Amino acid sequence: NSRHRDRRVAGLQQLFGARRGAYRLRLLCAAGNRPAGQHHPVRTHAPLRAWHRAAMNAPLLETRGVDKHFGGVAAVDSVDFALDEGELRCIIGPNGAGKTTFFKLLTGQYRPDAGQILYRGRDIGGANTSEIARLGIGIKMQVPSVFEELSVEENLWIAARRVRKGETKRELVDSTLEMLQVDALRHEVVARLAHGQRQLVELGTVLAGEPDLILLDEPTAGMTPEEVARAADLILAVNRARTLIVVEHDMSFIKLIASKVTVFHRGAILVEDTMDAILGNSEVRDIYLGRQSRL
After folding, report:
1. How far apart are CA 105 and CA 241, in angstroms?
2. Could you tell me whether strands 213-217 and 243-247 are parallel, antiparallel, or unpaired per DSSP bridges?
3. CA distance 68 to 20
4. Fewer Cβ in 10 A, N or C end of the chain?
5. Measured distance CA(135)–CA(266) in Å, rounded
6. Which residues are CB-contacts of 126 (< 8 A; sequence separation ≥ 6)?
7. Distance between CA atoms of residues 198 and 213, nearest Å
8. In which region does residue 34 sit, left (phi positive, over 0), alpha (psi from -120 to 50) or beta (all else)?
9. d(CA 4, CA 7)
10. Cβ-proximal residues to 153 (8 Å cutoff; 6+ apart), any chain
11. pLDDT digit of tens for each residue in the chain (295 aa)?
């Protein structure tokens, strides 16, 4: 029953807390400081309600003049970026373009040297990853980071128990398994799964945390073509209720999901446009794949 499962998961959390899963556990459990079913603090004072109305007209996520240098090299150079609620934004660029550094700035893995990173109008540029997760931002790194000694269901249970209580917790786990189309694997130990399946499990742990904004770093890395197509359908389905940023270099995958695309080059935004416009942009083609290539 659920009480027994909670005790088992709590015991497993203690067991793995000092091991390699500790960092991932902190990230998954960061949402636990939010009341069950509540994504944002309740605002009751009139000035705060007025602030909230103004914030509704502002971007969900915004960067203003964000810089990040390593030695004398500008990995991210004065980037202004804005993401509206409900968007699915793809960030692409060749190797060394700065997109991964930008992702790490958004997720608290790096701190900006200058500029602001605003989420719902709040500057999160100095926050760590756990603090950012508590604000309702779900983060999936490029390399799957899950509890491999636990089952698929138990991984999702750890995430769900931090935002749901009672029977609704079970409903969330079951609906996440169904959305991922991995219900048949619910009792499988994650360590025994193929790489692409582990990628899906980690995405499931993000979804089970019920974030408002999801940040994905190369979510299809290591997947088969069939798994990539399935992941694309899943991301489009998630976007019906969540805002997403997807950082990728695989253009074949981006073509399956993208509406608006931001192209990074040499640490700055080269262009932002629709997928169709990006595909026809000769400058993007030249910097992304070389002058003799086609997107």
Report:
1. 25
2. parallel
3. 28
4. N
5. 30
6. 111
7. 21
8. beta
9. 5
10. 173, 177, 186, 187
11. 555 555 555 555 554 444 444 444 444 555 444 444 444 443 444 555 554 545 567 899 999 999 999 998 999 999 999 999 999 999 999 888 999 999 999 999 999 999 999 999 999 998 999 899 999 999 998 776 789 899 999 999 998 888 888 788 889 999 999 999 899 999 999 999 998 888 899 999 999 999 999 999 999 888 889 989 999 999 999 999 999 999 998 888 999 999 999 999 999 999 999 999 998 999 998 887 664 444 5
For the chain, list the strands marked E by DSSP: 61-70, 73-83, 88-92, 114-119, 122-123, 137-140, 213-217, 243-247, 260-265, 268-274
Scanning the structure block, which residue is given the tokens 């999936």?
Answer: 140
| CA–centroid distance for 228 within its chain | 17
Rounded Cα gap, residues 289 and 269, in angstroms? 17
Contacts of 197 (CB under 8 A, 6+ apart): 182, 185
Tokens of 214: 């999801």
- Residues contacting residue 57 through CB under 8 Å, at least 6 positions apart: none
* Single-letter amino acid code for the residue at 168: T
Distance of CA 53 to the CA centre of its chain: 26
For tokens 């190797």, what's the residue?
95
Beta bridge partners of 140: 216
In this predicted structure, what is the pLDDT of residue 106? 97
